[in-house]
Each structure stands twice: as structure tokens, then as C-alpha cells.
Amino acid sequence: MDRIRIVGGNKLNGVIPISGAKNAALPLMIASLLTDDTLTLENVPHLADVEQLIRILGNHGADISVNGRRERQGESYARTIHFTCRNIVDTTAPYELVSKMRASFWVIGPLLAREGKARVSLPGGCAIGTRPVDLFIEGLQALSANIEIDSGYVNATAPAGGLIGARYTFPKVSVGATHVLMMAATLANGTTVLGNAAREPEVVDLANCLNAMGAKITGQGTSTITIEGVRSLSGARHRVLPDRIETGTYAMAVAMTGGDVILEDTDMALLDTALEAIRRAGAEITETNSGIRVVRNGAGIKPVDIVTDPFPGFPTDLQAQFMGLMTMAKGTSHITETIFENRFMHVQELARLGAKISLSGQTAKIEGVGRLKGAPVMATDLRASVSLVIAGLAAEGETMVSRVYHLDRGFERLEEKLTRCGAHVERVSD
Ligand code: EPZ
């Protein structure tokens, strides 16, 4: 199994191209099941999760062709992919596929809306928390779906004339359930109003793409989304928005190591709260013609307290990386995780690098140690893994990160992007 070897201590200097967002690409790809026409997505990142979803959509009958494989757009290998699902050949999403990637559960929305039925495996356990699907079920029932759970599968059927638009308010903000309800409601009879909807940029990106396909969605980006059902959707061409989590991760890496880096092809507005926290920690962040410039020269890292929250709050997907940064602060900081109950698996591993962190419920207390020392580490999820990579960049000596497959799920060409900025990072195959 591959590992990543990092020799820390180098400052980062140069340009890092930011890829298309994984968490936008996945629901956008799933939206292709809503139409028999071709949906073309540009700027799709080349990631293990995308490849897995290509397999899953193929299973439902989508014909998928990848253009410009390895085509260079600026410095990145962004790809343009065409999805055509003339006929849905299978409305079942089996356990073998859904258990590998939770987001594949989301096919339930389009399958139910277009075919009137779907049989989708429950996603099962997950390293960062229990992550139930009750909100999806409740929301689809509000659209008049009949739902039964049997032998680990959710069996959903729509009334004879199709789903029926309704008013539904989520008891808790959920990105995935907002994606699914929005997709399902595009083809429902009548109007659906979703209250307490997720406001994440990826939800806005999906709504914009659905509108380009002929849907009638308004209010995306606010907590009330209105969807007027239409009879059918057509194809469209849509560019996946930049990855705000990748952007924030590299910004934190520069804040940790020091240096001067331009993050290209991204947008500050996607991650205001996180950038503000990095600024308060001591990095200079400015918008330039070519992207976001992150600089830290000389100044020490200051402790900053954060609480994760749904957008526009501090993203849970940057919590582990920010904890890495705080281990090097001069002073004590607190990080409270409010989205997932078990998203502190990186704490033990950061401690192996010399960090001093104690946990009390959902809050971590980080006593800055000023410097970290390299060690062998491993992580159980994507964002935790990358927090170890960026901590390794700032640590003295060698850090070996195992279970690299987690990183390959969500960070495109990580080693190459960092190496070009002067980091010593390499993939080691055993
Ligand atoms: C999305 O997951 C992201 N995944 C996650 O990124 C991200 O951490 C999360 O949103 C929060 O921002 C993708 O976009 C593919 P949720 P999602 O439903 O949609 C609870 C990464 O590293 N909940 O917003 O699955 C749930 O348990 C990943 O890229 C219910 O209780 O997250 C959690 O506590 C990890 N019942 C909270 O809501 C439900 O039916 C928010 O989860 C659904 C969710």
C-alpha cells in the first residue's frame, strides 16, 4: 500500500492550481440520471471518489465519456466528462457500491423522480460519525414517496403520477439531503419549498446546473429553496466550482510552513470564515489578479478558537487541518466540532508529531507547542489524512503517512502541487 513520505522544514513558495470541488462534482454527476440527454461537466477533478461514482452511474445505465484526459488547463488536469443516461437500466444501488462511498446513496433522488422507484442500500458506518439517513427518508416521504426499509435497503416508490411537491423543513441542516430533495423535486408535480436548507456553495452549484438543465429553482444559497416541478429536464454544459476545502487546506499549509503562495482558479468568497481564521492566526491573505495570495513571513502563529458550523460557518472539512495549524501556535486554542460526533481521529496522530491536545466532549483544547517532530502516522478519513500531511510539512525531520488511499479520494495530485512549491513530499510504494 502506498505511503507519503514528507521531509518537513521547507517553506512553500510558488503557485498551486486549485481543482474542481469533489463535493460539487459528485452531486452534479448524479444529476445526470435526471435526464435522457447529455450532461457535460467541465473541471471535474481526477479523484478516486469520482472514478467510483462513474462506475456506479454506469451500473444505472449512464454512458460516460471522458474528454481531454490528461489535458492541461492551466496547471491542472481538469477533465471534461459527458454523461448520457438515455435509459435507466437498473434502479438498484447495491451495498457493494454504496458502502464504498456514502454520497452514492444520493442516487435515490433522481432514480425515484425519473423512474418512480429506487432500491438503494443503506450506506452503513463511517469513520467520522454515525451519519444516519433519516432526513432523506422524511423529506422524500413529504414528497409523497412510500418508503420501506428491508434487509439493509431503502425501497422507495413514488405515487402513480410521480412525486408531489410539498413544503418540508429540515430539522437539521444536511448538505446531502438538500441535494437529494432538490433533485427529486425538479420532476415532481407542483412546487416544493425546502426550509432550513443547506446553503453550501456546492448546493448553489447543483441548483445552477439543474436550472441550466431546465429546472425552476430559486433561493439557492439561502435557507429556503423553492423548486417548481417541470415535466422533464434536458442536457446542459456546466463547470464545476473550485474546491474550497482544497483552497483552505493549502492556505493553512502556507500558514504553517511560512512562505508565499498563489492559489489559482479559486474564489475567496467560497471560504470567507476559514480565511478570516487563518488571517487571525497570522497569515496575510489577499486577492490578486491570479488568485488568492497567502503569505507568512517571520510572524509566529497566534491561537484562534473556532467552532464548525454549516455554511457560512467554519467548515467541518477544514477542522482537522486547522487543528494542525493550531498545534504550532504560541498559546492555547479551542476547536469545537458541531457537525460530526466523531471527527477527532486526527488528535491521536497529531500527538505522535508532538502536539498537545486534550478532548472534552466535542471540544479540543490545543496547547501550542511551537514545533512538531516527524513520525510515522496514519489516518482514518480524508481530511484527517491531509491534516497530517500539512503538519508533516512543518515538522522537523521525516513524517510517513500511511493509508494514502484516503488522500486519493479528495486531493488531486497533492504531492506534485506541494513539490512544485518547494516541499519535500513523495509517494512511496511498498
Ligand atoms: C457533506 O456530507 C460532505 N460530503 C462532507 O464532506 C461534509 O463534511 C458534510 O457535507 C458537512 O459539510 C459530500 O459533499 C460528498 P450532512 P453529508 O448530511 O451531506 C447529520 C469530505 O471529507 N444527518 O450535511 O453526508 C449527519 O450525521 C466529506 O469531503 C442526519 O442526522 O453531510 C451530520 O451530523 C466528509 N440525518 C449532519 O447531519 C441525515 O439523514 C450533517 O451531515 C443526514 C445527515
UniProtKB/TrEMBL annotation:
The active site is at 126 (proton donor). SUPFAM superfamilies: EPT/RTPC-like (SSF55205). The keyword Cell cycle applies. Phosphoenolpyruvate binds at residues 22-23. It holds the Pfam family EPSP_synthase. Pathway: Cell wall biogenesis; peptidoglycan biosynthesis. Residues 8-418 form the Enolpyruvate transferase domain. GO terms for molecular function: UDP-N-acetylglucosamine 1-carboxyvinyltransferase activity. Coiled coil: none annotated. Its EC number is 2.5.1.7. It catalyses: phosphoenolpyruvate + UDP-N-acetyl-alpha-D-glucosamine = UDP-N-acetyl-3-O-(1-carboxyvinyl)-alpha-D-glucosamine + phosphate. InterPro entries: Enolpyruvate_Tfrase_dom (IPR001986), Enolpyruvate_Tfrase_sf (IPR036968), MurA_subfamily (IPR050068), RNA3'P_cycl/enolpyr_Trfase_a/b (IPR013792), UDP_GlcNAc_COvinyl_MurA (IPR005750). Transmembrane segments: none annotated. The modification 2-(S-cysteinyl)pyruvic acid O-phosphothioketal is found at residue 126. The keyword Transferase applies. UDP-N-acetyl-alpha-D-glucosamine binds at residues 102, 131-135, 172-175, 317, 339. It comes from the Bacteria. It is found in: Cytoplasm. Keywords: Cell cycle, Cell division, Cell shape, Cell wall biogenesis/degradation, Cytoplasm, Peptidoglycan synthesis, Pyruvate, Transferase. PANTHER family: UDP-N-ACETYLGLUCOSAMINE 1-CARBOXYVINYLTRANSFERASE. Cell wall formation. Adds enolpyruvyl to UDP-N-acetylglucosamine. Belongs to the EPSP synthase family. MurA subfamily. This is UDP-N-acetylglucosamine 1-carboxyvinyltransferase. It comes from Ensifer adhaerens (Sinorhizobium morelense). The lineage of its organism: Bacteria, Pseudomonadati, Pseudomonadota, Alphaproteobacteria, Hyphomicrobiales. The gene is murA.
